[in-house]
Design goal:
alpha/beta, Rossmann fold, 10 helices
């Protein structure tokens, strides 16, 4: 019986990544079950983006392995990518396509019906239908982020991998996306989120892992990570990470992760 049949959608086993002598991610073990909203958070450069790239087959591990939807990512990353939604960190849609053309490409690649209707729906949902014929290179950062999110949502995947998805969104669309993600969870979906915005982790995640300098410092529910009822998630973060990052940097949602 495969992992997906057991309700286990993501499993990293002794997974680690090094670039030469630099260890970006020390070997770790993580399991995410169906219906979970699992969050990985930590300061910039903690290894979050490396982790999500390993899980989605964008990078090959130095040690260990990953199964997603019961599929060995190392052997069949293409099948994994075909069945999940992915929003990479700091990645934009192709500059030579319009917003509508990119979403049409994604929808046709995934074999969806009513492509025009789905493209129109998501452009309307994100409030960028007036930009449908604009080249992606001419869109603002926030508009490009909306196009990337629409491309991940368009086929209604049951598993989403999101790397800092809210960084370039205004507060209105941050809220809309949070509400949509919670609806997906309520409908049986599963979400794996990497972020350094503590408010997002506290509001959304059922379980979290705290990552710093490539190490998992702690994992569990937010309540399990607290040492007392009065402790906030920011308190937990500073206690675990120490003085390597300020509370302002951790909570303001400003700079994205550095490339690891």
């Amino acid at each position: 019986m495969g992992d997906e049949d057991d309700g286990l959608l993501v499993e990293a086993r002794d997974l680690g990544k090094a670039f030469g002598d630099f260890v970006a991610l020390h070997p770790l073990n993580v399991k995410v079950a169906s219906g979970e909203f699992f969050g990985v958070f930590g300061p910039n450069g903690a290894g979050k983006s490396t982790f999500i790239k390993l899980l989605t087959g964008q990078l090959q591990p130095t040690v260990g392995g990953v199964r997603v939807l019961g599929i060995d990512v190392g052997k069949n990353a293409r099948k994994v990518k075909a069945n999940v939604g992915i929003v990479p960190e700091s990645e934009s849609p192709p500059s030579y396509l319009t917003a509508a053309e990119f979403l049409e490409f994604v929808a046709r690649l995934r074999g969806l019906d009513d492509v025009d209707g789905k493209v129109r729906y998501w452009l309307d949902w994100f409030g960028i239908n007036d930009k449908r014929d604009s080249m992606c290179k001419d869109l603002s950062k926030g508009q490009r982020q909306k196009v990337m999110l629409a491309g991940a949502f368009i086929h209604k995947p049951k598993l989403l991998f999101l790397d800092e998805p809210f960084v370039n969104l205004d507060p209105i669309y941050q809220r809309k996306c949070r509400e949509l993600l919670m609806e997906m969870i309520a409908d049986g979906g599963t979400i794996f989120l990497c972020t350094h915005i503590l408010e997002v982790a506290e509001r959304l995640c059922t379980r979290v892992a705290v990552l710093d300098q490539g190490h998992v410092l702690a994992s569990g529910t937010i309540e399990e990570l607290k040492e007392s009822p009065d402790e906030t998630l920011e308190d937990v973060f500073i206690r675990l990470v120490g003085g390597s990052v300020s509370p302002v940097e951790a909570a303001d949602g400003g700079l994205p992760d550095e490339e690891e």
